[in-house]
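Researcher: Please predict.
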Amino acid sequence: MAKTLILILLSLLLCSFSAGASCRRCHRLELDRNHSFPCTRCHAGNPKGKTAEEAHRGLVLRPAHPRNWRKACGPCHAKEIRILIRASHYTLAPAVNAVLSAFGLPRVRSLLEIPAPKSITTRADLVYDLLRRRCLKCHLFYPGEDYPEARRGTGCAACHLPYAGGKLADHRFQKPSSRNCLHCHYGNRIGWDYYGFFAHDLPYAFRTPLVEGEFPARPWGIEFHEMTPDVHARKGLTCVDCHGRAELMEGKPGKSCLACHRKVKGRRPFHTERVLARVRCIACHAVWMARDEGLYLTLYENPDWDEWQELFVQQDAEIEAQFREFFRGKTPKGIMTDRLTGKPRRGVWFLTLERRRFERVTLGRDREGRVSPVRPVLDLHLSYVNAADEVVVEDWHPAGSVERPVSPHTVGPGDTLRSLEILKRLGLLP
């Protein structure tokens, strides 16, 4: 009888192992109702393995990654994947093409079409290398910078699984939280400003004040001033309350201000039909805006770490890690990784800023000719110093205007003086 009972228990144990329950003996996690099925269905592995090593054989660590998602997510979410791969959150085409066009280079349909130079032989190579190794840190193929709040999942998991402190916090798929959004939208980009964050300048002296003799925490890799958050953030609205599935995944237009604020339409003098047709709401209602002017990016194939040590906080975890080696008396490798392929290559991109300010809301025009906040999104200055310390390219920057319309997420009460000045310029005041 005892032997029979033992055999039954062993049989149940093996069945539970094959059902994925054994995974959760080590990996303490909960699954949401829609994904409550064996772990091996997405992560593969060996369900009959009797040791951790055997069970992990053939494991797919990131099944939601774009390289794996058709097999793991596709059987249930084929339509979503088919739609997403055309959306800008996947292709990043608008951002990439803005830079390529500014430097006179051909446009691409997706970041995956950006050439990958093995060495810098032309000016075009310099731009492609900048994009692949310094700029494109926020895309669905990459798990983010090695900072606590910049780490995230890849593919579907980037938006739908919560990460905190650099680790997966929960295995329950969910509607994207604002924390998910801020894993990418940080560092004087739209998103950080929504919660009132404005990045400190890079030089050592600007990174004060100290807190009990120590620099403040840098969960995104750079300290920040705490400014006035957007009124919608203060009321508890998250990013996806305005930027929903249709906009983020399907590339359709997002909600307009007037979709919610219908009652203001027609009010004199600032909300008449004539004014609303010629002025974006944010032109009057932005309380502050981040302006980074003069971004000087220099590629050094043989970096002088001593010369740059006052600027070791470069908003780049890979560069900062090499500075830490230098401070310990070691010689850094002087490499940076291609964020698309994961392959390292010689050379380090250093960043300096001419000016970083938040006080002034600068106005210009958007594509429809409406008055809009603008900032120097393309105020890029590229240089290249080769391994022999020869300056091959010096201060190459786009011709023409570098200002582009933006939507500072710093909404508050309208600035009356700014609003009146706008109406005067447009001839809408008597």
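Model: The chain has 20 helices and 13 strands.
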